[in-house]
Each structure stands twice: as structure tokens, then as C-alpha cells.
Amino acid sequence: MFQAASAKLAQTLLVLLIVSAASFAFLKLAPGDPVGIMLGSDYSKTSYDQLTHELGLDRPVVQQYGNWLADFVRGDWGTSYITNQDIFELAVMQALPVTLTLAALSLLIALVIGIPTGVMAALYRNSWADVLATTLAIGGNAFPSFYLGILLIWLFGVDLGWFPVLGFVAPWEDFWLGMWHLVLPAVTLGAWYVGLIARITRSSLLEVLGQPYILAARARGEPGWRVVWVHGMRNVLMPLVTVIGLQLGGMLRGAVMTEVVFALPGLGMMVTTAVLNREYIVVQAGIMLTGLLFVAVNLAVDQTYQFLDPRLRRR
Amino acid sequence: MDCAVALTTQAANMPVSEEPLLDVRDFSLRRGQAVVLDGVSLALQPGETLGLIGESGAGKSTLALALIGLLRAPEVQLEGSLRFRGTELTRLKEADYRRLRGNKIGLIFQDATAALNPCFTVGQQIAEPLKRHLGLSKWDRRERAAELMHSVGIPEPRLRLDAYPHELSGGMQQRVMIAIALACNPELLLADEPTSALDVTIQAQIMELILDRVRELNSSAIFVLHDLALGAQVCDRIAVMYAGQIVEEGPSERVLAAPLHPYTRGLKSCVVELGSRTLVPIPGQVPPLDAMPAGCRFAPRCPKAKAICGEQRPRAEIRDGRQVACWFID
Amino acid sequence: MSDALNITATPDSQWKRRFLQPLLRQRSAVAGLAIIVIYVVAAVFAPWLATHDPTAQDLMASLQGPSAAHWLGTDSYGQDLYSRLLYGAQLALIIGFASVALGLVVGVAIGLAAGLMGGRTEWVLMRIVDGLLAFPELILAMAFMAVLGLGTENLVYALALSFVGPFARMTRGDVLQVKNQPYIEAARLMGVPTAAIIWRHVLPNVVSPILVQAGMRVSIAILLESGLSFLGIGVVPPTPDWGLMIAEGRAFITMAPWISGVPGVALAILLVALNLLGDGLRDAFDPTTQKDA
Q1: CA distance C33 to B208
Q2: Of A85, A272, B141, C130, which sits 20 to 30 A from B46 (CA to CA)?
């Protein structure tokens, strides 16, 4: 048991190391000369060499990586050339909560709509619910979220005027106003997940309902709703969590697009702006942070899965 | 057991004044065009055990599932009558049927590993019918579940209550299954090949356990089995099924000792006995459900078949204290 | 059914039975394929089908709705949307297929090398692959675009690089599975050269799941391509790209919804079609994934 846990830990640490190395490599590969950028257009050879030495850029790459990693762990992520803002502050304190809020709200919407649709589709095959689930699954999954966002802004924001079209109000400062601003973005991003969740729920539930233990539950007099929602859905949770975890890349892809369309100051917006401004140090922070987030969520999914499936639980 | 056989033999011979616990009359089950069960009739007295014997695909399990109401319209079409304690089951409302399932009628599945939900503890699964049908409180359910586990021979039941099915051996899982089926002291227990998924070494134990429990509760039981000798050994009566029909039904000893139907004879000679010289398999195979012969379904494989066998279905005749469906009973 | 009975063992009918018929059994996949064929035809014949030069600006005719002169209207620069739509299809398909093909070749090469060589080479290669897989595709592609710079060609490279990881991991997994089969061992013992073993025994076994994967990746590639261009980190204006067109039309959504509508709808339909075909391919050829019942 302890061995398995420590092997998992070692593996995670290795991946984290790779993530950090990749982020470090990014800045090394990025075009432009950071010393030149920092000094501006006019500088002498001496001041150039001095700054190079101060920044440690004359040392071996491995040592530079070590220093960089130490700074990173300490939360010293540098300062933006353009806004003079502390990058740790910008990325972790400002952008990350926005993206996490958006993602969580989208996932919630997707679950609330997707699961019942999928269950209905499984129970009443070839009914309207089945058609809806299939349409959502194919349409929602393929429809580009940035265009969906534009359509929603046009329809509900501009034409009907029900929701604000742009901008972000932190829900932790003004909850209802914040939520009101997040409705359209969360629907845009959630639409992508709804179909996926409905589809997995449908196919997994169909498979589970064919299992002998479902027949056995009915044979001991369990009512139909309990057979489906308790005995059946309990077993559907595992594939559902797996798929939600596996599709995290798609979720982040959609989040970047959605943030830009709705001008939400999240990680996606931060990275996009930074790429456009060629502010590679900020891009690097974004890469590192999404990498960490990715690893963390995958780990969380893994743990949830073990928790959900008693057969994998260690006792 | 001898005594019981004698008694039930008499009961079958004489007109019964008391209504049997289960009375199946001319019961047919169709799935689309396929007639899966064709004109099945049998009766079961309180406290009686019946063995349903036949090859796989004979419709034994289907009959068990139909009896407990898990195969009903619109999934399948039912005809004829199923009476349980005087209630007509085929017309019973789903909500009322549900009150019988796991309560008055229990079902033991063939493969306990597959029939226990992997995500719930065995205690939770045993407690379900106790809550549903007996309305016991949470604490009482736990107590009763532990008692039930003890009664089916699970050691240290209190420790095992919170175990998940995968943490138990196959034999223990089947004991749990039995505890669930017997949780509400059913009047009728259906056991669908209860030992065939188990290790040979514990098959006898489990069979013995079920029989003990059934006798103790004074329940009736129907065992679905493929082994004629085993059926004759454990059951008062035996019904031999072939391709959805009962071909011969009667007291175990007589059916085994002197089978009347050619199919029963074929089954018997399939059984390897110590000292027997020959093992004669029945030639051919069960015809597909959508291509059943119009007359006797066994006719294409029957060594004695004549023209009439393929054309007209033989009616069940009472002969020597049993019913036999064959044109040529000698 | 009657076709199935007429099959003789010619290579042609072999192909039909193994690939065409399972696919044709899936109606939605056929519909997807039909739509894709229409897009491919539009893309190939864009120079002949187009009524205008896709990048010709005519500020006198800007923001016009559909008319006889401009069938689908014009954008804010007066560029003809119908012509841009056709050339946009060309660009989307070229970038989509080229990036997946490139990613596939590199990924399969890495996977083969890692799976067959083993040892330290495998360890190093797979750690690089881990690094690629540790990031979401879009972030990876954005990072590569930042390093490489904007432009169509760089976009293909960036997308291809972000696809290398999955292909490499899949190939290595398949190779490891095939490598331990008795018939590979037998071939090795018989002295068949390694290259021949790879070519004759290993590749045919890994090719089918990888092609299925590639089919499904094309739609992601096109989504990423248009998405990055929408964000301004992909193709540069005035190239007729759907993502760019949607971004441009965004500002005029109330007065001229067709500017973003034309490329938006075209993109959505293409992606749906690609997904339908991808699902069909997966159901027909990939035994590892279960079909939706």
C-alpha cells in the first residue's frame, strides 16, 4: 500500500519536473533577447554584460534552470515589462480564480443538464430525449465555442438585453452580479461538456442496466426509480468521472476561447494577451500554471475514481 | 424425503381441494415471433420443492424470471395463467408485483458475483428488502442482516456487513445472495442454477444450505438445474423442460427410475454413472426459437418419432402419477 | 446482404468488406462523409467556383448583405464572403490534414523508436512525450506559436507538435503489445531483419487504431486552427481564414451578422461532419472502444 502510494508520488513529482523543464525550455526557445528588451533600445556592452550576469544568464543552463525553479517555487515569477505587475499576483491571485470559477460553473451546468438528458435517453431509447441527447452530443461537442459565444452575446446580450455582454465581476465580491456576468460564458463553455456528459451517461447507463445486479435489485422489490438512480447511476459515476477528467484539455481549450470572447480576465485571456504582446515571461507563467493545473486535476480524478470504485479502494 | 415423495405423489393423483401455492396453467411467453415458453402447466404445494430440469435454452430461467415478474409486457407477451396464493400474477399491477418480489417470492441468481452490485456493501444489499417490505428501522435492519448472514453460515457476520462483494469469495457471495432472497421469509424461493458458478468443492454445501433454510422456513422452492440426477436427489418433484415445453413432470424418484418421455430418457443416459457402460448423447440440437416444429418440439431429435409427432402437439397425459407429453408413451 | 454473398477473394473486394462495408453500415458516418466530400470539392475547385479574389478589398461595397454581386455579402473591407468562404475551406482542410499528418509521422516515429529500442532511449523519448502530454493541446499550440511566430506554415508546425504526444504514446503502447507476440519472436528467430519485422508485422498491427485516432484529430486540428486564428495567434490577415473572419465579424454582429455567420456556420457544419465520420471510423475499426449501444 505504502509502496503504491510512494510510486504514485514519485511519478507525479517526475511529471511536475518535466512540466517545469518544459516551461523553462519555452523561455529559452522564445525569440528575442530578454536582456536587450529590459535595457531598451540604447545600451552599452558593459551594462549588457552586467545585467546578463545579474540575471544569471551567463551560467550553465542547468544552473539557470535550478535558480529559476527555486524562484518559481518561492512565488518569485518576475514582473511584467508592460504593466509592471507582479506575475505571480497576476496569474495566481487574479487570473486563476476567474478560470476556475468559469470552469466549475460550466461543469455544474453541464452536469445538471447532461445527466438527466442522458438518463432519459437511455431509458426511452429513440424518444425525443434520445434525439436531444444525440444532437447535444454531436452538436455541442463540435460547435466552436467562440462562435457560440458570439451568437449568445448577440441574442441574449444585445438583442434581448438579458445579460451583460462583456466583463467580469468577481462573485466573491458581489455574488449575484458576478453570477449574472458569468451566465453566458458558463453556458458557452458548458454546451461543449453537456453533450459529452449526456452521451457517456446514456451509453454507460445502458450498459449498467443490462447487468445482472440490476435484475437482482429488481428481484428484491426495488422500485424502478431507485434501480435507475441508485443502483444504476452509482455505477455510471465511474466512467463519468473518467471522461470528465480525460476531456479536461478540451475544457481548457474552450475556456481560453470563452474568456477571450467575453473579455474575462482569466488564464486564457492572460496567455493570449501575453502571446500577442510577446511577453514571454507571462506566457511561461501561464504554461507552467496550466501544466500544474492539468497534473493536479488528473491526480484528483484518479483519487476520485479510486474513491468511487470500491474494487480499487485500498483497505 | 421418501415420505414427502409418497405424500406428494398421492396429492398429484387425487383431486386437490386446497389451492396450491403456485398454479401455472397453459402458460406461454412470446418474445416477438419466438414462442419461448409454450403451454407450461405445473402446480406447487406449500412446502414442496420442484426441480426444473433441461438443457440450456430450454426456458427454465425464463420461467423463473416470468414467475417473479421480471419478464412482463411490453418486453414479452404472456398468455395463460400464473396463480400465486390465489392471485393472478399475469394481470397484477407493477406496484403490487413489486410487493411480492423479494418478499413473498425470492430469487437466487446463478452467478452471485455478477448479481451483487459492486458499489454497495453486502450489508446494504441484504438490508434493502428489509426496509422495502418489512419497514425495519436502520438499526433493526443491521441486526437482522447480521442474523441472516449468520443463518446462511457466514462467519463473523458483523464484520462482514460492511464488506464489498469483491472482498468475499464466490461461495460467500452466493451465501449473501441466499440471505437476500430469504430475507423476508418468502413462501416461494426460486433458485436459478444456484451452484453452477461455484467451485465443485462447495457446490454441495451451498445446495444443502438452501435446502436446510427452505425446510426451516417451510417455504416452497423451485430449483432450476441442468442435472437430472441432482434434481431428483434434492427435489420432491421434477419437471423436465425441452425447448420451452414441459415434457414430463412427476415425483423425482419415479421420473428418474423410469422415465416415460424419450427426452427424459435421453437426459438420463447422458448422466455418467459409476459402472455404466455407455454414455449415449441425444443426437441433434435444440431447434431455433423461430423455427420450432408445429407438433412435438422434440420430434426432430426423437428416436421414436412418427409422422404425427411433427404435425400435432401431444397433450399432457397423466400416467403413473405424472404428466407426460408424448404420442407414444409405452 | 446479397453483396456479402457475392464477395470473392480479390484484393479489391477484401478492401470493400473490411473497410467500406462496416463504415457504410453507419448512416451518420456516411452523412458526415458526404458533407466532407462537398467541402473538399469546394476547396479543390475554389479558384473556379469563387466569384471574386478573396483578398480584394472594395471599401465602397463594404458591409453589404447577400446580393447578386456578392452572394453571401461582404465584410467591413468589402471582401466577398462567398469567395473567402471557399478559400477558407481550402485553408482549413489543408491546415487540418497537414498538421495531423505531420504530427502522426513524427509521433509514430517516436513511438516506434521508443517501443522497439527500449532502454534509455525509450525512457528519454517517453519523458519528452510526457512533457508534451502534460499540457492541454491549445496551450501547447499557443506556446509553439509564440516561439515560432505567426503565419500559416508555423500554425501547421505548432499544431503538429501538439499532436505528437498522443500518437507517440499510442504507437509505443501498440508496439509493446505486438512486440511480445509469439509470431514476432518467431520472425526474429528466423533471422528476419528488424526493419522488415517492423514493416511487415508491427506497422500493420498498429496502423488501424492510429488512423482512427488521426481521423478524430482532424476535427480538433481544424477547431484549434480556427480558434488560434480567432485569437489572433494563428494565420495573419488578410488570409481568408474562418477563424479570422469570425473575429472580424464579431464587431459587426448586430449590423452585419452574416460576416461572422457565414464562416461560423460553415465551420460548425464541417466540425459536426468530421465528428460523425470520426465516431463512425472508431465504431467500425477500433475494437478497443465500445460502441454506443
Answers
A1: 62
A2: B141
Strands B220-225 and B188-192 come out as parallel
Nearest by CB to residue B164, choosing from A219, A221, A310, is A310
Report the residue from A212, A217, A220 with minimal CB separation from B111.
A212
Of the residues B119, B133, B190, B193, the best mutation for testing chain A's interface (the one with the most A CB atoms within 10 Å of its CB) is B119
Residue A212 and residue B129: Cβ atoms within 8 Å? Answer: no
At B190, is the pLDDT very low, low, confident or very high (cuts 50, 70, 90)?
Answer: very high
Using the structure block, give the residue that is written with the C-alpha cell 409422422: B307
**A10, HSE (Cβ side, Cα atoms, 13 Å):** 6
Q: How far is the alpha carbon of A46 from chain C, nearest alpha carbon, in Å?
A: 28
pLDDT interval class at B278 (50, 70, 90): low
Chain B residues whose CB is inside 8 A of the A315 CB are 167
* Neighboring chain B residues of A125 at a CB cutoff of 8 Å: none
Q: What chain A residue is nearest to B95 in terms of C-alpha separation? A: A223
Residues in chain B closer than 8 A to A234 (CB atoms): 117, 119-120
Beta bridge partners of B248: B240, B324
Question: Is A81 inside any structural domain?
Answer: no
pTM, to two decimals: 0.82
Q: How confident is the model at residue C292 (pLDDT cuts 50, 70, 90)?
A: very low
The pLDDT score that the predictor gives to residue C21 is 65
Nearby residues of A174 by Cβ (< 8 Å), 6 or more positions away: none
Element spanning B192, H or E? strand B188-192
Q: Determine the Cα–Cα distance for residues C110 and C172; give it in Å rounded to an integer.
A: 8
Domain-located, residue A1:
no
In sequence order, what are the residues at sequence separation of 6 or more whose Cβ sits closer than 8 angstroms to the Cβ of residue C244?
C229, C230, C234, C235, C237
Check residue A33 and give its pLDDT.
Answer: 73
CA atoms within 13 A on the CB side of B209: 26
Q: Would residue A15 count as lying in a domain?
A: no
Q: Residue B274's pLDDT band (boundaries 50, 70, 90)?
A: low
Residue A63 lies in domain: 32-74
Q: What is the mean pLDDT of residues A288-297?
A: 87
pLDDT classification of A215: cutoffs 50, 70, 90 = very high
Q: Which three cell numbers stand for residue A297?
A: 486535476
CA-based angle A294:A299:A305, to the nearest 5?
125
Torsion over CA: A192, A195, A198, A200 (sign): negative
In this prediction the ipTM stands at 0.85
Q: Who among A220, A231, A311 is closest to B166 (CB)? A: A311
Q: How far is CA C293 from the centre of its chain?
A: 27
Buried b / exposed e along C200-211 (16+ C-beta atoms within 10 A)? ebbbeebebbbe
Residues A152 and A294 in one domain: yes
Q: Are residues A98 and A57 in the same domain?
A: no
Whether B172 is in a domain gets the answer: no
For residues A16 and A288, the answer to whether their CB atoms sit within 8 Å is no
Q: Is residue B304 assigned to a domain? A: yes
C119, part of any domain: yes
Say if strands B237-242 and B105-108 run parallel, antiparallel, or are unpaired.
unpaired
Distance between CA atoms of residues B182 and B176, nearest Å? 10
Find the domain containing B249 and state its range. Answer: 2-104+184-324
Nearest to C147 among A31, A139, A159 (CB): A31
- Residue C37 belongs to domain with CATH number: 1.10.3720.10
Grid cell, residue C11, equals 484484393
CB under 8 Å to A9, separation ≥6 — which residues? Answer: none
Instruction: Determine the distance in angstroms separating the CA of C102 from the nearest CA of chain A, rounded to an integer.
Output: 21
Q: What CATH number is associated with residue B227? A: 3.40.50.300
Q: What percent of chain A stands above pLDDT 70?
A: 97
Distance CA A82, CA A38 (A): 11
Extract the C-alpha cell encoding C138: 491549445
The per-residue pLDDT for A230 is 94
